[in-house]
Amino acid sequence: MRKKEGFNIRKVCGENILVAEGMSNIDFSDIISMNETAAYLWNSIGYEEFTVQTLTDLLVKEYEIDEATAFEDAKDTAGMWGKVNIIEGDDVPEYGKKIREPYEELKNATARNGGDYDSEGTAPKGLINKIKDIF
Hints:
Elements: E1 2-3, E2 7-12, E3 15-20, E4 32-34, H1 36-45, H2 52-63, H3 67-83, E5 87-88, H4 97-112, H5 127-134
Antiparallel strand pairs: 1-5, 2-3, 3-4
């Protein structure tokens, strides 16, 4: 995988915003905000080739988490970047399996219970809309 040229992080009102620069990105109309961890990874990889393992190693080193958790997070991050078309390569992982399955489960549980709470009474009304905003 490799970052597409012309995407740079800028701090805007305290947020890490990915800005499309250059003529090849002139039609880019989405705003991409990255949390501190994603921004750390983005800035760390430069414009060199990288893999999910590269991102995993960076996460383990910076945050001292176990490699299995770091690998899943790195795979999801790379998949998300691929989905929004800011990286390219034949090895970009598919985005969403780890995150989307629990989201769909929670959405369905809330819908079954009239939209107020999930079956265990733990998903307050409006939570699904907040989760949707994340994605």
